[in-house]
Amino acid sequence: MARKGRTRKPSFCWSVKGLLSERLTGNSYLDSILDGILERISDGEIGKSELSSLQSILLKLLNHFDNLENILQLNHFNQILSMMQGSSRTIINLRILSIAIRNTFVRDPTTIQFLFEVSRSLHDSIDLSNIKDKENNRSAHLISRFIHMVDYGSECERHLAFLVQCRGAFGSMSEVKETVVHSSNLLAIKSRRNDISCVIFVKSCIACSEVTIPSIPSHLKQLNLYLETAEVALMAGLVSPSDGLVDSALRCLNNVDLLEGSRMPKDIDGFQSVLCKFCSLIVMIPGDIERGVTSIPRNMFSILSSLSWMLPSMKVKVLCALILTFAALSQNNLLYHSIHDEVMGNDSLFYGDQQYMQELLSFSAVILQSLIDTVLQEPIQAASGNLALDACNAIASSFEACEGASDICSKLVETAKLSLVSDNKYLQSTIKFLNSRELVQGEGLKKQENNLLCESVV
């Protein structure tokens, strides 16, 4: 007589085999399959092979629907996902976020919370000892993109609370923290109104950014974010917080080191771009009478002079920007102002103040001398010629025609002539510009221009 045995449940793989082979069109069929999956994994009947099969099933579902709203409507999907682990869970999380970021915005609170949990699971799975791994970088990018897409509409406080939550949840991802700062600043701009409650909220946004920035490892990125946040503060009429952020930016500038152990600086263009942005911001910041109206550019110049790793080519670009900044500040009507009515520009604060103009001119002379000295320090001959022309154009754009400016420009052109061929287009255009500005010594430079033009035609 045959011995009766217990009825054995079909294996997990065989139970779901139909889902892999059928077209996913019947919701009732899907529901029954997902019910069965949840029942089995709830009983603890899932091993490595079953986990691999489950990964394939969920990927098939995600690829089929390719729409987050439809996916979230599936029975038990969230519960099944929460029971997955290891690399299989990571693969599914990456796929979910890849689908989600195809949208322009994410506004549904339930969807936002779901994606936040997916992102947190992805973040927690990262191996901190290998944080620069490509897969980890991809995870950071997807999470950053999700945070950027979140939009709570008029519920600004709720949005800010979400950003604060993200700052705490994704602390090991520098890119995500940068996104939190950008999003917080954008939120402050969107909420800007004239009522006092908005001012309080904007201060909260700025505080969120200010607390987050120091945790970002790159000093160059910190510098850029401090300047961005300072600009937002100015737009809201918050002069004092803006001054504090600028001071933080200056301290950060002192710590920037583009060498980072290498022989040549890295990200030179990015550094120069940030410093030019800094110079542009200086034009909008009201001068401090107690510290001196040139206190910010003076501190900036002092720090730049102390950075031993700065190449002459980099320093010339920044000094040219400072020269142009002082030219802008010396105008009776500034080129641009803060959009907030309560933030007065220097053209209003120091209108007709001769001491203000004298301070600008005095420090301009210091920068001008440093600019000339730096051009002469460039060891590469061709580069020296181009730097001389850069300096010449900045000076010609900033100073009225006078004997001193004419002498300097003439000497810089002579320096360029020693390094560049006579038909160099940059050299020719610079000489033409000097003539239009009447920054020439007698007829010598004008004749020189004519000779160069003749040579280029020949």
Task: Describe how the helices and strands are arranged.
Layout: H1 12-15, H2 17-21, H3 27-42, H4 48-65, H5 68-72, H6 77-82, H7 86-100, H8 109-124, H9 134-149, H10 156-169, H11 174-190, H12 196-212, H13 219-235, H14 239-255, H15 268-284, H16 295-306, H17 312-329, H18 346-349, H19 354-377, H20 381-398, H21 403-419, H22 425-436, H23 444-457
Subcellular location: Endosome
Keywords: Endosome, Protein transport, Transport
Family: Belongs to the VPS35L family.
Please, could you describe this protein's structure?
- Helices cover 70% and strands 0% of the residues.
- The chain has helices at 12-15, 17-21, 27-42, 48-65, 68-72, 77-82, 86-100, 109-124, 134-149, 156-169, 174-190, 196-212, 219-235, 239-255, 268-284, 295-306, 312-329, 346-349, 354-377, 381-398, 403-419, 425-436, 444-457.
- The chain is built from 23 helices and no strands.
- The protein is mainly alpha-helical.
Distance between the termini: 114 Å
So what's the overall shape? Answer: elongated
Helix content: 55-70%
Largest sheet: none
Which strand-content bin applies to the residues? under 5%
Give average pLDDT, whole number: 83
As residue ranges, the low-confidence spans are: 1-10, 19-25, 442-458
Q: Strand tally, please?
A: 0
Strand-pairing-aware structural class: mainly alpha
Radius of gyration (CA) equals: 31 Å
Secondary-structure element series:
HHHHHHHHHHHHHHHHHHHHHHH
The helix count comes to 23
Subcellular location: Endosome
Family: Belongs to the VPS35L family.
Pfam families: Vps35
Organism: Nicotiana sylvestris
